[in-house]
């Protein structure tokens, strides 16, 4: 079953079936136990009525026995001989004996040896104490046992009709000390009929109920999954049309499907933005590459036709610019591909010294503030971090009026490289936008000055992949301040 609706309906049906079958079995067992106990109680009452007569020494032939169809009765003596039974009882099982014809036995009040009483005068005069001791040793006479009766199940045939009965066995002691056992039965027809009716109702109702459960589950699941089908269809249409501006329908409910639709739309929004950035990146890169390539081609064509007019310096400058732009694009491609920096120790103080010492052609000298021994090591790629520092210095050189400064220090376990200039600074509303690729501020950036709008985005991407940050703020001199913060390799007190 590949359909979710089919699996849900089948699963719900199986669970309900197991639950109903278990509950039905429990109901049948409880019902049978209760009705059997009621039959046993009725049998006990009938047995105690007969036992009460025997305790009063009523002769066997004059016992008032209950209706034999309702309560068949057997009376047996201590030797298991049948001494009394219901008149129309033809066969019985499950009691003390399967006999239905009483044996010839003395009356309950006789001693079994012909004496009708044992309390003659000589007994009173000479054996009073012995009789009292005897009474203490023998069961109570002329009494019905108060112990719980023994219950058994069996059958009885009365007037040719055989049925199941619940038998109760109650003991009675006559005045002569004879112990008799009364077996009285109560029919189990009511119990069997009730259990059969309930079982039949369950056998008929269970399939119907399972069909209802399956149908309801199918319909409910179908309705619940209808928005999912809408989401799937819309996603298929988006895939076919490649139109990422479309969105899947969001149901008005607040359930998991609604959250799925919202998450899907958020993913589509992020994907659309990503594709848009990629397209802009390709377009901007093509535009940036077109200018130096076109300029270089023009100069080479002029040089080929008129060698005396070849601007060699301009051709070299365009080549350098093209090389730098290609390097920036290659680095961005590696960063977008998820390239991770290494775990090499890098001393940022020494790296800043090295980068500044190589900048011999800057129009404004760079002032450095680097402690001699400040535990300025971080983990990462030396080449990428050198690229960040170089980009920050290039940016400061392009916008500074008369001064560029760089400082390195520790701050609460982090190493900070701060590059400042005294230019016009970056407006607060533009301090995040300048980190987008190919973005230039209209009044501060010029393509002719060499800025392609990739230096700061590259610097921030490298900082983030090193677990750090790069932020633009206002410098004390009024210009821009770019702070690169990276986690240090070891903890130390904050430095200057």
Write a compact overview of the structure shown.
The protein has about 500 residues and is of the alpha+beta class. Helix content is about 45%, strand content about 20%. Strands 1, 2, 3, 4, 5, 6 and 7 form a seven-stranded antiparallel beta sheet that branches. A five-stranded mixed beta sheet has the order 9-11-12-14-13.
> What's the number of helices?
9
Query: Taking all residues together, what is the mean pLDDT?
Result: 83
End-to-end CA span: 70 Å
Overall body shape: rod-shaped
Helix content: 40-55%
Element-by-element helix/strand order: HEEEHHEEEEHHHEHEEHEEHEE
Largest sheet: 7 strands, antiparallel
Strand percent estimate: 15-25%
Number of domains as seen in the coordinates: 3
Radius of gyration: 54 Å
Unreliable stretches, pLDDT < 50, 5 or more residues? 111-140, 443-448, 491-496
Category by helix and strand content: alpha+beta
Count all strands and give the number.
14
Architecture overview:
By secondary structure, this protein is an alpha+beta fold. The protein is rod-shaped and about 155 Å long. The relative contact order is 0.07. It is built from nine helices and 14 strands. The protein has helices at residues 4-55, 121-126, 128-137, 189-241, 256-305, 312-336, 348-357, 382-399, 455-465, and strands spanning 73-76, 82-85, 89-93, 143-144, 150-158, 161-173, 179-187, 344-347, 366-369, 377-380, 404-411, 414-421, 469-474, 480-487. It folds into three domains: 4-194; 244-339, Helix Hairpins (Orthogonal Bundle); 342-487, Histidine kinase-like ATPase, C-terminal domain (Heat Shock Protein 90, 2-Layer Sandwich).
């Amino acid at each position: 079953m590949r359909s979710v609706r089919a699996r849900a309906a089948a699963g719900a049906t199986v669970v309900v079936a197991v639950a109903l079958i278990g509950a039905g079995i429990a109901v049948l067992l409880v019902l049978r136990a209760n009705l059997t106990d009621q039959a046993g109680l009725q049998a006990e009452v009938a047995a105690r009525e007969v036992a009460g007569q025997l305790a009063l020494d009523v002769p066997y032939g004059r016992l008032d026995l209950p209706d034999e169809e309702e309560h068949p009765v057997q009376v047996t003596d201590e030797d298991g001989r049948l001494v009394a039974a219901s008149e129309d009882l033809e066969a019985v099982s499950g009691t003390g004996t399967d006999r239905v014809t009483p044996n010839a036995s003395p009356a309950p009040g006789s001693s079994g040896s012909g004496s009708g009483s044992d309390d003659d005068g000589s007994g009173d005069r000479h054996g009073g104490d012995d009789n009292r001791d005897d009474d203490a040793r023998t069961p109570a006479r002329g009494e019905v046992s108060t112990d719980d009766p023994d219950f058994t199940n069996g059958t009885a045939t009365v007037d040719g009709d055989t049925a199941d009965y619940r038998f109760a066995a109650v003991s009675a002691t006559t005045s002569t000390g004879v112990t008799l056992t009364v077996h009285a039965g109560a029919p189990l027809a009511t119990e069997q009929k009730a259990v059969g009716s309930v079982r039949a109702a369950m056998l008929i109702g269970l399939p119907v109920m399972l069909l209802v459960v399956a149908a309801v589950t199918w319909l409910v699941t179908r309705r619940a999954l209808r928005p999912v089908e809408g989401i799937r269809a819309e996603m298929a249409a988006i895939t076919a049309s490649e139109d990422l501006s479309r969105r899947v329908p969001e149901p008005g409910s607040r359930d998991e499907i609604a959250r799925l639709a919202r998450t899907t739309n958020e993913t589509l929004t992020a994907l659309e933005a990503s594709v848009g950035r990629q397209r802009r990146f390709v377009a901007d890169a093509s535009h940036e590459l077109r200018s130096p390539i076109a300029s270089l081609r023009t100069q080479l064509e002029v040089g080929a036709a008129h060698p005396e007019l070849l601007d060699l310096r301009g051709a070299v400058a365009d080549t350098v610019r093209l090389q730098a732009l290609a390097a920036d694009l290659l680095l961005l491609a590696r960063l977008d591909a998820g390239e991770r920096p290494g775990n090499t120790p890098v001393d940022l103080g020494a790296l800043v010294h090295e980068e500044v010492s190589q900048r011999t052609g800057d129009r404004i000298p760079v002032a450095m503030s680097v402690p001699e021994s400040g535990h300025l090591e971080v983990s990462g790629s030396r080449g990428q971090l050198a690229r960040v520092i170089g980009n920050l210095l290039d940016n400061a050189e392009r916008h500074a009026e008369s001064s560029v400064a760089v400082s390195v220090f520790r701050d609460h376990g982090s190493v900070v490289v701060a590059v400042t200039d005294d230019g016009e600074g970056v407006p607060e509303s533009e301090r995040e936008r300048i980190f987008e690729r190919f973005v230039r501020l209209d009044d501060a950036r010029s393509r002719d000055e060499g800025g392609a709008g990739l230096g700061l985005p590259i610097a921030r991407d490298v900082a983030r992949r090193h677990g750090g940050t790069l932020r633009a703020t206002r410098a004390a001199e009024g210009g821009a301040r770019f702070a690169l913060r990276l986690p240090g390799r070891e903890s130390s007190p904050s430095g200057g």
